[in-house]
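Forgive a beginner's question, but would it be possible to get any protein sequence you like and the tokens describing how it folds?
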Amino acid sequence: MKTVLRKSTGSPSARLSAGFTIIEVAIAMLVLSVGLLGVAGLQATGMQSTYQSHQRSVAMAQARDLADRMRANLAGTRAAEYVKTIPAAPPSPDCESSGSACDAAQLAKSDLYNWDSMNEQLLPSGQGSVTCTDIDPGTPAVLESGTACLVTLRWDGDRTPATTGTGCSGSSSDLTCLRLRFIP
């Protein structure tokens, strides 16, 4: 009688390791998905930073615009017309749109109204204010040469409904602020 030896189809270790490829693929997919989530988070953070940078650029352009308007209307600036309340409605006469001749006070009101209207359009919840530090406090209606003025812009930089304050403290409940100090 002849003995026939059969060749084994695989070693015992090869048969035991056959199921590990599915586990390896599952772990690789898990690592890949965690990596992709990290990239998505970085993308979202980058977009938020770009948006905030754009808002700051717009705010700086707006602050410079008002500073230039105040320098162009030096008589209105010296008469402290720019530190008064910003008009809620277009002033009459509206010097810029009507083409009529206006005095320094009317031009200042028109400048402030148009500037504040642009703040509302360009920045979320945008609002501004102007204060000047008078060199000679004995003459409050006249700002002397060398008086420093501060243009402050406030807006909701995060667009969060919890923003209730109007200050510039930097807390999450306050608005984002930009201040520009200049001498007209």
